[in-house]
Design a protein that fits this description.
disordered N terminus, five-stranded parallel sheet, EC 2.7.7.15, rod-shaped, 7 strands, two-stranded antiparallel sheet
Length: 353
């Protein structure tokens, strides 16, 4: 069967030339038609390693021999041949054929491919080159001969590179390694133990493991929930502490405002008292200076003149007026004193005379 309906092939076979210093011959590619390259294998559990090898065969990524136009034929052995010479496969033959048909590098699939290639097979399928990796594969003789020994001798073998880290055997090894998990996975999805080929004891064992895993999962979930609860409690405690600190800050702020008002009132009171004391001191100083400037006169009977006392009382005990009024009063009193002095002098002269 083929993905592509035929190819324009001619009946002219490719020529072969002898390699220098070797008994093998190197076939030269045809130039008047697409080069027909053949690759074969089992292709069980088709993966990207298979796809890469087929890509190399399609592109003929071989040094000194890159074909501009290639028609890739892929041979796949049936179940009978594969189970006889290689072993049990996971996928049936038809499944493996169908996987190859859906690979974009494949032009044609040859089912029931032979295990060992001969000249007749190459001629019947007009194959120019055979592409495969260089690892030797045992033939049907049991003598350990390479199945590609014939095409290597006739110069029609093209080596491809294997993809490291991926193979059908590796995939099967992963399944075998985690066998219990895959069995429990399928049991969870509705497969019966008869479908999986598992005995009753094994099924009970797996179910016990499943319950253990479930218990471990629930325990871990419970621990996580407990940790979350403790974390929430810590967050709540921190929030309460922050709230208390905010209340404390508010109280301190109110207390500071009250103290500030009291401090300002006390300062104003002290300032007012100081201003009053300063005014009193200034008034006393003025009184002392005035007392020193105005001489006190004795009356004839030995008593002080009441005029001076009356002057002082009128000057210092009345309400403070404007500066101009005080100056006028001061000068008026000075004139009165001068007149009194003149009268006393006249009286004194009259007595003396």
């Amino acid at each position: 069967m083929s993905n592509v309906t035929g190819d324009p092939t001619g009946d002219l076979p490719s020529t072969a030339v002898a390699l220098p210093g070797s008994t093998a011959v190197q076939s030269s590619p045809p130039t008047d038609r697409p080069v027909r390259v053949y690759a074969d294998g089992i292709y069980d559990l088709f993966h990207f390693g298979h796809a890469r090898s087929l890509e190399q065969a399609k592109k003929s990524s071989v040094p000194l021999c890159k074909f501009p136009n290639t028609y890739l034929l892929v041979g796949c052995c049936n179940d009978e041949t594969t189970h006889k010479y290689k072993g049990r496969t996971v996928m049936a033959a038809e499944e493996r054929y169908e996987s190859l048909r859906h690979c974009k590098w494949v032009d044609e699939v040859i089912p029931d491919a032979p295990w060992v290639i001969n000249q007749e097979f190459l001629d019947n399928n007009r194959i120019d080159y055979v592409a495969h990796d260089s690892l030797p594969y045992a033939d049907t003789s049991g003598a350990g001969k390479d199945v590609y020994e014939f095409v290597k001798k006739v110069g029609r073998f093209k080596e491809t590179m294997r993809t490291e880290g991926i193979s059908t055997s590796d995939i099967i090894m992963r399944i075998v390694k985690d066998y219990n998990q895959y069995v429990m996975r399928n049991l969870d999805r509705g497969y019966s133990r008869e479908d999986l080929g598992v005995s009753f004891v094994k099924a009970c064992h797996l179910l016990l493991l499943l319950f253990c895993y479930l218990f471990i999962f629930l325990e871990k979930r419970l621990r996580v929930n407990m940790r979350l609860k403790k974390l929430q409690e810590r967050v709540k405690e921190q929030q309460e502490k922050v709230g208390e600190k905010i209340q404390t800050v508010k109280m301190l702020r109110n207390e500071w405002v009250e103290n500030a008002d009291r401090w300002v009132a006390g300062f104003l009171e002290i300032f007012e008292e100081g201003c009053h004391k300063m005014g009193t001191a200034i008034r006393d100083s003025i009184q002392e200076r005035l007392i020193k400037q105005i001489p006190r006169k004795k009356l004839e009977n030995g008593q002080d003149d009441d005029t001076d006392d009356q002057f002082y009382e009128e000057y210092f005990d009345h309400d403070m007026g404007s500066d101009e009024d005080e100056d006028e009063k001061y000068y008026d009193e000075e004139e009165e004193l001068e007149e009194e002095k003149k009268e006393n002098a006249v009286k004194t002269d009259a007595k003396d005379k």
